[in-house]
Amino acid sequence: MIQPEEVPSGLAHFESGDEGISIAELFIIFRKRFRWFIVGLALVLGLAAGYLKFATPQYESQVSVLVEAIQRSSSFESLLDVSSSSAKIATEVELITSRSNINLALQSLDLSQYHNDDGQDYQDRSVLGNVRERVVVSTVKDTNIVKIAVTDQSPTFARDFANALASTYDNLLTGIAKNSKTAQREFIETQIPLNDLTLSRASDALGDFRENSEIIQLSDKSSMLIEQISYYTLRLEPLKLQLGEAQVFIKSYNDSLSKAGFTGILTSEEIRKDPTIASKLEELSAWKTELSMYESFSRPGAVASGLDSSSRTYVINSAISQVTKDLLNRVNVLTAGYATEANTQAIVSSLTTEVDIGVLHKRADVFTEELSQLPVLERRLSELQRDVQIYEAIGLKLREMLEEIKLSEAAITGNVTVVDAAILPTRPVRPNKLLIMAVALLLGSAVGLLLTLGIEALDVSIQNESQIRKIVGKDLPILGWIPLMKISASDKYPTLSVYNDPLSYESERFKLVANMLYNKSSRRIYTITSCAMAEGKSTIIGNVALALAQMGSRVLVIDGDLRLPSMERFFRLKHREVGLVDFVTKQASLEECLILPFENTPTLHLLPPGNAPLVPAAIFSNPRYIGMLEQLKGYYDFIIIDAPPLESASELLSISKHVDGLIITVRAGITSKGALYDLVTNLRTANVPLVGFVFNGVLASALGSYRYGYGRGYGYGYGYGYGYGYNKSKEEKKRSHRRRRGSTSWYRKRYKQDLKTRGKILSNLFEPILAFGSGASYASLDAWVANSVGTGYEDVVANPIVEEVVAKPEMKGPDDLLAFLEADSLASGKKPEPKS
Questions:
Q1: I want to staple 784 with a disulfide (CB 3.0 to 4.6 A). Which of 312, 582, 606, 778 is the partner?
Q2: pLDDT under 70 in the chain at which residues?
Q3: pLDDT tens digit string along 98-130?
Q4: 145 near 185, Cβ under 8 Å?
Q5: 3-state secondary structure 68-112
Q6: Positive or negative: CA dihedral 517, 518, 520, 521
Q7: Residues whose CB is less than 8 angstroms from the CB of residue 674 and which lie 6 or more positions away in sequence, other chains included
Q8: Whole-angstrom Cα distance, residue 693 to residue 662?
Q9: Three-state DSSP class for residue 479
Q10: Omega cis (within 30) before 431
Q11: 3-state DSSP call for residue 691?
């Protein structure tokens, strides 16, 4: 007995889960699962067609407008600016889709004249829907041209609403610009009467003081102090007015944005609390304080200080300009989402003006403190004169500012000019049928391909040799592959191709496996198993054993599947009660157990199982069974044992201990990858000598690497050809070819149908014939072997016939030889039925 060989493990590749796939395999999968690709493609195309059928057409109308920035349209200086540079209009564009503008546009339309497809008018807001979502605003790059597009199922509403948006948008921007200037004008107009009244009171007080007191003129020091205090006071009052004007503008602008639906607007106090702003304001205050000291001594009429302040003043002014620029940049960042240029300038002006006012107050307080040390009468006179001078200057400044504001307010014009009015659309823009179908075609192809690969991934069955090699490695050979056979009710032995048609394509595949075993001269006892039941091991055993017998070998088939024996039924023999179990347990002789499957093949014997044992595994570990195998090796050239699957019966391992090699049958499309992996792993763990695999039930043109045609004039031996499908019409061949290209589901359906058909065919069984005994050609195994030793199989079958064949020199040509062979009574094989 050959000791089990240590075979290097080839399972690491499968265990890693890295199953590579080639382009050729992808094409094979795609062809095999093509109908699932069609299903995925048809599904997506069907959904797209359904959407196009039930989707409501949407029409789009577009109006183009030229938008001017609010600060440019509302500024008097912009009238004199002939520059062609365009200001940023981001805020103005956002106002187009504001709630205020949309509501104004809807109010300007008669919504009762617009209807949807169901006949409902747009006065019902639930029918109108969210109009804002159907408005798209876009700008032309580097221009102030804005395009407003409205999409709706009513083409008339789309056109009218687009034009209405442009009209109300012009009114909205103009109103915002006018509101800011009007608020400034009204503020100045209220300040002028108040200033005049205060000036009148100050003048009267000065006149009364001069009449009632003896002081007519101030001293030089008093005059100097009064001048300094007046200088700072005169500077303070315009700054206060400027601060008030800026605050009014900011409040008016923020209120307009709030009404338009903007959120997140920062107040002046929130901006002032920003850490960067606060730091810059402190730095600005220090520079302003130093600058005011130099300005107070360098102004006309001031006392000469002897200091050359021109260079220092330049440095201070440069620093103030840089800090102011930094403030402007930071404010732009904080208000980027809503503020215009005019608004940011007003915010910065408000912040810097507050700093100027604070600095001037500090400087004025210094001189006021010094003035308080003078005599009371001089101090009183200086105060009265200062008040008169201040209010006179303020009155002039207010009137100057009022005229400027009036001129700016009168210069405000419309911000929006319609370039191209919206027209009535004639074709819907949605759904875009061509685009949707093109996308559906691409998406459907992708879904179909994914569905194809998904179905293939869900199919865990083995379908080609490459999958076997990925699971077990390349160290175990595939002894051969067997094509899927058609079971015919007219055949005596349905699946015994070597007997039914020895020259057929299927027979040659079985003979190839037989030759593989024949060439392994050192191995004589084989067992054949499978991963599960009904995977074709009995068919392979029967055909291979018969092929070996026809090659001149003495072959014994042992039915080792004691739970579900099948070899007797395979040879269409009735069950015999005496067999392997009786030999091992009841001391029956081998001659009483061995039967002859075919009368015309005396070198092929079958050892049936006999009676079913209680513990099948005990039979194959019995010393009598082991001794029987050693004895039978002296009688037979090959012993083939039909072993049960390991998943169903553990006695496979007991059988494998006493054989020279184990062959695994893999059924294409039936055997699962996991089952094969588990079987090979267990067998290698038990050190079972694996010989190789037989790939059974292969669809030659559908399952991968097999491209052989069955009816392609396969020549054989004597100069005439037999092929698969002999005596079949062309139409039958086409149908057979189409069947071979069926899907996996078709394959499994065909497999189940063949099992049912085979069960029906095997209903009529023959009586078994003993190979040895009184009624047989030989009484014992020893007599049989003694008679055949030295003669070879050619002596057993009949020498005279061979001599007769050789003694016919008159035969000429293939036709004479064909006629002779057909007349030969011992010629093995199935003869074709004569045509009626």
A1: 778
A2: 1-20, 70-88, 210-211, 213-223, 225-226, 296-310, 370-379, 411-414, 489, 700-763, 789-836
A3: 888 888 888 888 888 888 888 888 888 888 888
A4: no
A5: CCHHHHHCHHHHHCCCCCCCCCHHHHHHHHCHHHHHHHHHCCCHH
A6: positive
A7: 460
A8: 9
A9: strand
A10: yes
A11: strand
**CA distances for 338 relative to 133, 247, 263, 271, angstroms:** 21, 17, 9, 14
Closest CA to 485 of 551, 538, 536: 536
The reported pLDDT for the residue numbered 723 is 34
Token pair of 258 as six digits: 């709030």
Q: How confident is the model at residue 413, as a pLDDT?
A: 65
Q: Which of 365, 461, 439, 452 is nearest to 667 (CA)?
A: 461
* Residue 123 tokens, joined: 């006065």
Residues with Cβ within 8 Å of 479's Cβ and at least 6 positions away in sequence, in order, are 512, 513, 516, 517, 663, 691, 692, 693, 694
Which token pair is 400? 């100057």
Phi-psi region at 497: left, alpha or beta (left = phi > 0; alpha = psi -120 to 50):
alpha
Tell me the backbone φ, ψ of residue 791, rounded to 5 degrees.
-100, -30
Q: What is the pLDDT of residues 360-383, one digit of tens each?
A: 888 777 777 766 656 666 667 777
Locate 179 and state its tokens. 């509101």
Structure tokens at 141: 């790059």
Query: Which residue from 789, 787, 767 is spatially nearest to 777, judged by alpha carbons?
Result: 787
Q: Cβ of 141: how many Cβ atoms within 10 Å?
A: 6
Type and span of the H or E element at 147:
strand 145-152
Q: Smallest Cα–Cα separation from 633: which of 483, 524, 785?
A: 524
Q: In the prediction, which pLDDT does 190 show?
A: 86
CA 92 to chain CA mean position, Å: 41
- The pLDDT assigned to 782 comes to 87
Instruction: Give the DSSP per-residue string, 521-583.
Output: TT--EEEEEESSSSSSHHHHHHHHHHHHHHTT--EEEEE--SSS--HHHHTTB---S-SHHHH
Q: Structure pTM?
A: 0.53
